[in-house]
Amino acid sequence: MLETERHRIILSAVQERPVVTVADLCALTGVSEATVRRDIAQLHLAKKLRRVRGGAEAISPPQFVGINARPFAVNQTINIAEKRAIAQAAVDLCEDGDAIIINGGTTTFQMVHPLTTKRLQVFTNSFPIAEHLLKQSKNTVLLPAGAIYREQNIILSPFNDDGSGHFYARRMFMGCRGLGPLGLMEGDPLLVQAEQKLIGQADELIVLADSSKFRQRSSLLLCPLNRIHTVITDDGIEDRAAKMLEAAEIRLIVAETAGSNRRTRAEKE
């Protein structure tokens, strides 16, 4: 990753929480602690952030505290090849005329490009997904009522009646913060509330999760494994994670990442 890209990610990350640790920034950028510390020092000298013990903080923290989730712009740069392969495999499950739900996220956002060849009814709480499909495709697009959270580009409502209860879908496609033996995990109660409502409107829940999500954990459980019908991931998935899904009788689709020598496979039909 180029230095300018790392700096952009670091500056975006410090705007979403009081303090961002060096470990957090290593995970976001994929570089060593030494490199992150040099980046923080450079940005501190440029007066773009404030260096603190163990990490960094914004010089002027935002007055509005958003939801506990990484900014959309930051997540877009992470595991992009894997996300594109996963998204293509997800769209391959769709047929013209289907009604589907797509939850907001950077992996699900990658579905918009192959979806331009489809004619579906799409309900989404993602502002960028809705905008792209409206401009670039002939899909019918429906949105819930609510406020747009700018950092995550997602539409959320604190009220029960946001319009989602009037839409029925064959499948719901969604990402997640983490995926483990207890089920899907998220990091914010408002996200959990919104996503649980959407899950209830679909027959099948299709989870789009790159292989790193099997190693991540969060404090909030969104739904148990037995609610998931299919998981689509990349060929970096570990055997332990694959066996966990098999034991839960979840269909596993592994999408080949560009440049990989492994073959795409679908398991547990």
UniProtKB/TrEMBL annotation:
InterPro entries: Carb_Metab_HTH_regulators (IPR050313), DeoR-like_C (IPR014036), DeoR_HTH (IPR001034), NagB/RpiA_transferase-like (IPR037171), Tscrpt_reg_HTH_DeoR_CS (IPR018356), WH-like_DNA-bd_sf (IPR036388), WH_DNA-bd_sf (IPR036390). Residues 3-58 form the HTH deoR-type domain. Coiled coil: none annotated. GO terms for molecular function: DNA binding; DNA-binding transcription factor activity. SMART domains: DeoRC (SM01134), HTH_DEOR (SM00420). Keywords: DNA-binding, Transcription, Transcription regulation. Gene3D superfamilies: 3.40.50.1360, Winged helix-like DNA-binding domain superfamily/Winged helix DNA-binding domain (1.10.10.10). Signal peptide: none annotated. Pfam families: DeoRC, HTH_DeoR. This is DeoR/GlpR transcriptional regulator. It comes from Paracoccus alkanivorans.
